[in-house]
Amino acid sequence: MNAHSQILGWGGGILLGTVGMAGMAVTVRAEPPLNLVYPPDGHETTADQIFLIGTAAPGGEVTVNGQPIQRSAAGHFAPSFPLQLGENMFTLRYGSEVLTRRVTRLAATAAAPLGVAFGDGSLLPAVNIARLPNLPICLGAIAPANATVSVTLAGQTLPLAPQPSSALLPPNSAVLTDRNQPSSDSLAQRYQGCATFRPDFRSGSGQLGEPSGSMQRQNIPLGQPTYHLSLNGQVVRQQAAGTVELVSVDAPQVVAVTADPGTARTGPSTDYSRLTPLPQGTQASVIGSEGDWLQLDYGGWIRTRETQAIASTVPPRTLIRGIRSRQVRGWTEVVFPLQVPVPVSLQQSDRSLTLTLHNTTAQTDTIFVPADAVIQRLDWQQLAPGQAQYIFNLKSAQQWGYKLRYEGTNLVLSLRHPPNLSGNREQPLAGVRILIDPGHGGPDDLGSVGPTGYPEKTAALLVADRLRDRLTALGATVIMTRETDLDLDPNARAALITQQEPDLALSLHFNALPDDGDAINTSGIGSFWYQPQSSHLAQFLHDYLVEKLDRPSYGVFWNNLALTRPTVAPAVLLELGFMINPTEFEWITDIAAQEKLADTLANGIETWLQTTATP
What we know:
It is a single chain. The protein is mainly beta. The protein has six helices and 45 strands.
């Protein structure tokens, strides 16, 4: 099927064929049936509303549970309806056609237990944990109101007090629908208490474990908490699924990061925010654990599988003295000689980049980092005991990329030089390398779908192909993550950016919303960035497309996405319109509009490079 007929879908009618009539060829077009592409039957959600996305022939009326709904000129629809907790049924009618959908709304908070019992899965810890001695260990459970609840751990009994209702935070995606306000968590009664434990008690008489007499012993087990619930004469006892240990301060576990790089987070799950990735080889002592996650001594958490224990019981610490820089093609490399590879943090801001070395004490008297294409000056300070901070004052507010790696125990920070524009009027982008990522692809990753079922992956590739042709005509070297209907993991696409080191990277998408969004009244161009070096590009391209195409603005967002995380170049993800908006979908799938979109985006990229990369 050619691109034109793909784009038309049901919105333009589908040509079934021709039949002979009195010697004449007569074209027969099939009117689209009633079609509902979202949600699927049996869909489950915690949202308090749901949109129904679909289409039918423009004439006639479509009703949902007997209520007529609004449709676009082409017959597309995406109304939202409230959801009650539990099962919700929707019946759609168009003429004699009928479709039904069952949607179940799940509670966003833990449910209260039935009878005298603990809430299912509510006993803490749910996984094995380890903490430093003398730090609070908090234990808790969900139980019926007015119950007496306590927990026994290592011979000590801790009463648990009922807690007032706490605010329930919505998911991060709620920002996208402007519904990110806290709500009350009132469905279940939570009981909680905290205590500290010392490693110098003996077990058996309210005392905990024995001192570490051997350097081989790293953690001191406290055991598995046992919970007690008493209500109306009934008593329930139940053990938590996880165990509790104290981390040995005499013989701490030391690990090295084996991933390239290691993903550090603010807490022990992927729900927590990312910190600066840890270069492969980084060493740190472990000060806590939770399930499959380790807390390192500088504060960050990392998956156990991204590390390897090393034969040391001494917390890694280093001095740092003199520092030099060196030039390689297109980069300035600053070398920090260290005794051991320690954790690092990096922050970007306008005209500065700040690198913090943890577990580091400065003995620095001499630095040779001359002003060059990127660096104006390097300053440093001992920010706190064990934290040495280096501030690079930069020549330009626009940063073009950085890399961090360890060469043995030397930390190498690479700062990218601006791209060199040719000055050729016919091919102004000659010498510039641009990576284009058409979002989604393959049989299992359609992306969002429009009212006809037309997939985002196809629209993204069509626009990306047109953009590639225009940038190539301007002299740019264009790298495509895919040129066919290829299934490519987002992390593999991000890795390609890191490997190819383009001057900038754009990921092209068309948008959708979480279930609680308003698909009819949400439209427009959106832009997403993560690294500060990408902020200006994201804002510029958003504003340029909105103005030149006269399109609505969805906004510019900081967002932790795989395609915005690479550090080697400014990397931006563009959402060029909403597939699920019945009217905007018609603009997205219009060939002339796609051509103009590619033209405008290419012009915007050229304008940004000309104004930003030129000294």
